[in-house]
Structure formats: structure tokens, C-alpha cells
Description:
- This protein has 109 residues and is mainly α.
- The protein has one domain (5-106): YqcC-like (de novo design (two linked rop proteins)).
- 61% of the residues lie in helices and 0% in strands.
- The chain has helices at residues 5-21, 32-35, 48-65, 76-83, 88-106.
- The longest helix is centred in the C-terminal third of the chain and has 19 residues, at 88-106.
Amino acid sequence: MDARIPVIAQHLLLIERELRLQGWWDEQAPSDNALASEQPFCVDTLAFEQWLQWIFLPRMKHLLESDASLPEACGIQPMAEQVYGGRRKQAQGLVKLLGDFDQLISGAA
């Protein structure tokens, strides 16, 4: 078992918590069509926070629960910085959490 799994699982919960605190957590799932986008981060069909909630978090949780190999790198923080450039103060906590996640995945943390 990868020794990072408990820390990564906890970190995913922190990301979910921050999305909820910011009011960026949806109770209603996007359409199947929106979720099936082939664009990176589903930029053509979802807001970034929707992508985090409906694509990223479930996929990462699935990897952890199925004991699958984790990615060797993750670059979510730069995308978050771009998306939330106009709302830096509001998104500061989420951007930091995503940067910390990137480091956890790469083994730098």
C-alpha cells in the first residue's frame, strides 16, 4: 500500500470541505453530456469547481478505494490560479489546497 493514501484521502476531504464552505458545491449533478466532455477539466461544459466535485474527487477516491496506482504528477493548482484569477482572495484556500495536493501526488510533500 502506498504510504501517501491516508494523507491524500484526508486532503480530498479538505478540498471538498473548502468547496462547500465557498458555496461551490452542487446538490444536482450536471448532465451526462456535460460530464462526458473530452476537453481538459471539461472546460467546455463545466465550471472548474464542478469538475473538481463531479470528476476529480470521485476519480481520486476511486483510485484510493481500489488500490490502483496513483498518478505520478498532478497539475491542478495552475489551472485553479487561472480560473480564479479575478477571485484570488475568495479562492485562496482552495488554490492552496490544490497546490498541496499536487505536491502530495508528486511525492514532494
